[in-house]
């Protein structure tokens, strides 16, 4: 803020002052650099790069389709964003082909690093739903199409696990609905158009679970479906 103060050095009678003949030097206010956006700003990222970094930290991801402006900003500032995340013991996972990026805790080995990312525990139903969605994504990729699922189809796919939970049909349906909603809240499932029952599966799942991970988990849950058991969610 600039303060304008009236000088009191001028004689009251308006007579000449000994400094009247000296040139008046006006110091111009320095223009802000394009990458300086507030007082004390020492950041190095451009504005759109900072917005991309913030979205990564807020989570869960940046998607090329959902974040049409942030995605190119992320690509342009990828190296600087990786560096900024490294200062926080985080790493950037980015897949240009799938158009998705997210952050995860860096493997710091013996260093006792603080954990900044929020974690959400998975129930049994959450886990089998994620596996099912990952398999749907793999099948869609093989056909060269987007992975689209419906609420009714998801409920049917998970119904085979009902006998493993100590609950009645209504309780099981509530757990399935809760698991599906969790996937929506974390943008693993994105609603298509105006249809609340149809969703696209996020390509981010390919980065979270490799094909090898899916194969191992599929065997575990296949044995689980075939053998009677009681599991608490």
Radius of gyration, CA atoms, in whole angstroms: 29 Å
Query: What is the overall silhouette?
Result: elongated
The CATH topology of the domain at 124-225 is Arc Repressor Mutant, subunit A
What's the CATH architecture name of the domain at 124-225?
A: Orthogonal Bundle
Biggest β-sheet, characterized? 3 strands, antiparallel
For the record, the CATH class of the domain at 124-225 is: Mainly Alpha
Our measurement of the CA-to-CA distance between the termini, rounded to an integer number of angstroms, reads 59 Å
SSE ordering: HEHHEEHEHHEEHH
**What's the helical proportion of residues?**
40-55%
Low-confidence stretches: 1-14, 26-32
The average pLDDT score comes to: 79
Strand order of the largest sheet: 1-3-2
Query: Number of helical segments?
Result: 8
- Helix-and-strand structural type: alpha+beta
**How many E strands?**
6
Beta-strand portion reads 5-15%
Pfam families: DUF4194
Biased composition (Polar residues): 1-10
Region (Disordered): 1-21
Report on this model:
The chain is an alpha+beta fold. Among the domains are: 47-105, Arc Repressor Mutant, subunit A; 124-225, Orthogonal Bundle (Arc Repressor Mutant, subunit A). Helix content is 40%, strand content 12%. The protein has eight helices and six strands; from the N terminus they run H-E-H-H-E-E-H-E-H-H-E-E-H-H. It has a three-stranded antiparallel sheet. Strands 4-6-5 form a three-stranded antiparallel sheet. A hairpin with a 4-residue loop joins strand 2 (90-95) and strand 3 (100-105). Helix 1 (47-58) packs across helix 3 and helix 4 (124-143) crosses helix 8. The longest helix has 20 residues, at 124-143. The termini are far apart. Residues 1-14 and 26-32 have low confidence and may be disordered.
């Amino acid at each position: 803020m600039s303060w304008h103060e009236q000088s009191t050095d001028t004689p009251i009678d308006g007579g000449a002052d000994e400094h009247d003949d000296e040139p008046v030097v006006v110091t111009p206010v320095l223009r802000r650099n394009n990458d300086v956006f507030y007082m004390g700003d020492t950041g190095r990222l451009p504005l759109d790069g900072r917005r991309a970094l913030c979205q990564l930290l807020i989570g869960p991801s940046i998607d090329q389709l959902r974040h049409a402006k942030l995605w190119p900003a992320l690509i342009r500032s990828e190296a600087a964003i990786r560096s900024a995340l490294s200062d926080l013991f985080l790493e950037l996972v980015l897949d240009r082909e799938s158009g998705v990026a997210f952050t995860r805790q860096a493997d710091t080995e013996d260093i006792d690093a603080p954990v900044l990312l929020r974690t959400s525990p998975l129930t049994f139903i959450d886990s089998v739903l994620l596996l099912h969605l990952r398999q749907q994504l793999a099948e869609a990729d093989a056909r060269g199409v987007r992975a689209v699922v419906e609420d009714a189809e998801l409920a049917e796919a998970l119904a085979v696990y009902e006998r493993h939970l100590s609950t009645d049909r209504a309780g099981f349906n509530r757990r399935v609905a809760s698991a599906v909603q969790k996937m929506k809240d974390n943008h693993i499932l994105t609603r298509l158009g105006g249809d609340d029952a149809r969703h696209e599966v996020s390509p981010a799942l390919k980065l979270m679970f490799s094909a090898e991970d899916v194969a191992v988990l599929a065997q575990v849950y296949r044995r689980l479906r075939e053998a009677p058991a009681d599991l608490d969610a």
